Amino acid sequence: MPFIGSFLSEEQFQCSICLDIFDNPVSTPCGHSFCMACIGHYWQGAKLCHCPLCKENFKKKPELHINRTLREITEQFKQMKGNTGACGGKEWEGVQGSRIEERPLRQRQLSGDLFVEMKRKLLKPFPSKEAQNCNNILVIEGTNSDVEPQDLTKKVSLRRYTLSGAANVRKFPRCSKHHRKLELFCKSDGECICSECGDTDHQSHKIISAEKEWLNSKVQIGIAETNIQEMIEQRLRKAEEIKFSLAEIKTAVERETAASMRVFAALLSSLEHSQAKLLEVIEMSRRSVEHQAEGMLRELDMEVTELRKRSAALTQLIQTDDCISGLRSYSDINTPLPEKDWSGASVSCHFETKAMYSSVCMLLEHFQEELQKLPEICLPDLTDQSPLTTHSKVKTIQDYAVDVTLDPITAHPRLLLSDDGKNVWCGETHQHVPSCPERFDRVVCVLGKRGFTQGRHYWEVEVGGKTDWDLGVASDAINRKGKIAVSPSNGYWLLSLRDKTSYTFRTEPPTALQLNFKPQKIGVFVDYEKGQVSFYNVEAKMHIYTFMDTFSDTIYPFFSPCTNKSGRNSEPLTITPILLPN
Predict the structure, then answer these.
(1) 304 C-beta neighbours (distance < 10 Å), count
(2) Angle at Cα 422 formed by Cα 416 and Cα 427, nearest 5°?
(3) Of 117-131, 226-240, 509-523, where does mean pLDDT reach its minimum?
(4) Are 296 and 277 in contact (CB under 8 A)?
(5) How many CA atoms lie within 13 A of 6 on its CB side?
(6) How far apart, in Å, are the Cα atoms of 249 and each of 13, 327, 393, 398?
(7) What is the pLDDT of residues 337-356, one digit of tens each?
């Protein structure tokens, strides 16, 4: 097979910028070749020059010279193809100003010196290991050389060669100090080194093969990737659970909104009906009184008219001097006067609305009973089931009610507890109680007997008119001796009242809470798995505050009635029974 047809192709003579055969080729310091006009235009106006192929940066713009060998080969290839190139003519002035002449060669032939040069560049000996694995034979033919084709047969790997070297040869990073391949890894310094670095600068360090270290790192990367994927799946599942919770809450809100709308609509309808009846009764009473008053006024008007006539006749009669006519006229006028006594007559109205008002009061009582039946706080019954599972029941926090009693072993010596363990208040003096590690010795507080390590729990505490108190939960690992720093980071999740009006959640710094309605009874809800602690105004059916954290220990209900402040804060904290909704 001829040389050009079997070995050289147009692709090997193409500039990677203009994608045409090289025209006046030049080579960059990194070894890649381009048309002089193409690379000059590519670097025009650039602040930092780099190779278009390997992207290697050059501190200053390289001074380029024509690659004469490559140009000669390219020119001959152009003659064979009849192509003059994309960037200019067939001749170029050399560095010294001499013109390079084209050699008259026959088509598909190379000159002897070009053939030797190409053989030197392209047919380099391979390492023994690579030679053992190479099964492809490359034959180069020439016409102006003494070398026979069978002598040029070499075992080479299946690579596409260009005039700058193998196209897919793996490029190993080199040591900047010794210019050798970085094939070792120093575990002490955590960097790749060459063999000479290992013999000089890293003699006492732990050194292994870079390839082996990379294989070990790949194992660790695989483990890390697996862990990350598991974390992603966990978070996606949690996101689905939260989305499902939101859907459940939305459904519950719609249901409760509809129920409340029905109750209030019924109340308004009843009130409007009662109001209409009441107005009707009042109107009827008004009309009756008006009718009565009009009759009395007509009768009075008639009597007044009659009396005025008699008064005028008497006035005229008294002026008559004729006794006979006067006596006759007087006998006619002297008839009995009206005898009706008007002194006790009056106009009054009895609206008869008391019964109506009683009916309205009964209606309001019925309305309050209906409000009591509405759930206070609706929470979806989330379990470990799939978030796609349909839950038929929506629970209220009262469904998680637990029986909480106070633990006297943990109570501060000044605290007094009721026999049933449901009331606690602060006394004036210390009680004679045994000292034990569980007892608080400085802060007047007490824990519940029962601790929680899982699940959801709810209890209610009557705070009444106390001026100061603390309620919530505390970890079993808290410090119970001496001064206590109350915060979630120290195992306390507490809602506090100070000076009757200052409500705070005990964070660092405390979180101030603005409450429009002063609670008389506090509900405490705990979800251990979610790390949730919520507080509610039971009577107003209002949420006060929720804190999210992570529980890793047993948690106990926490109670502090605070000091009695000379009797101003002497009322007890009372754990009250919970009435479950129907």
Answers:
(1) 11
(2) 15
(3) 117-131
(4) no
(5) 11
(6) 71, 105, 12, 16
(7) 777 777 777 777 666 666 76
SS (H, E, C) 57-97: EECCCCCCCECHHHHHHHHHHHHHHCCCCCCCCCCCECCCC
Across 43-67, b (16+ Cβ under 10 Å) vs e yields: beeeeebebeeeeeeeeeebebebb
Half-sphere exposure in the Cβ direction for 389 (13 Å, CA): 10
Statement: residue 152 has pLDDT above 60: no
Q: Output the six-digit token pair for 349.
A: 């109205």
CA distance 55 to 9: 26
Nearest to 89 by CA among 34, 24, 12, 18: 24
Answer for the pair 456, 400: CB distance below 8 angstroms, yes or no: yes
Q: Give CA separation, 537 vs 448, 462, 533, 545, in Å.
A: 21, 10, 14, 10
From the list 288, 300, 279, the residue with the least C-alpha distance to 347 is 288
- pLDDT above 90 covers a percentage of the chain that reads 24
Q: Per the structure block, which two tokens stand in for 545?
A: 């505050």
Q: Which two tokens stand for residue 192?
A: 């790749």
Integer Cα distance of 97 and 93 in angstroms: 5
Whether 468 and 497 have beta carbons less than 8 Å apart is answered as yes
What tokens were used for 519?
């609670």
Burial class (CB in 10 A: 0-12, 13-18, 19+), 361: exposed
Taking residue 347's Cβ as centre, other Cβ atoms within 10 Å add up to 10
**Torsional sign, CA 147, 151, 153, 154:** negative
Cross-strand bridge partners of residue 548: 532
Per the DSSP assignment, residues forming a β-bridge with 416 are: 425
pLDDT tens, residue by residue, 446-496: 999 999 999 999 999 999 889 999 999 999 999 898 888 899 999 999 999
Q: Select from 563, 532, 534, 564 the least CA-distant residue to 548.
A: 532
Q: Is the pLDDT of residue 127 over 70?
A: no
Q: Tokens 């007997």 belong to which residue?
A: 449
Task: Tell me the residue type at 2.
Answer: P
Q: Give ∠ CA 334-337-342 in degrees, rounded to 5.
A: 165
- The partner residues of 394 in beta bridges, in order of sequence, read 380
| Cα angle 216-218-223, degrees, rounded to a multiple of 5 | 100
Mean residue pLDDT of the chain comes to 77
* pLDDT tens, residue by residue, 501-555: 899 999 888 899 988 788 999 999 999 999 999 999 988 888 899 999 999 999 9
Neighbour tally for 365: CB within 10 Å = 10
| pLDDT score of 327 | 78
**Around 501, how many Cα atoms within 13 Å sit in the side-chain half-sphere?**
1
Distance CA 227, CA 239 (A): 18
What whole-number distance in Å separates Cα of residue 526 and Cα of residue 548? 10
Residue in the structure block whose two tokens are 């309001």: 364
pTM of the model as a whole: 0.40
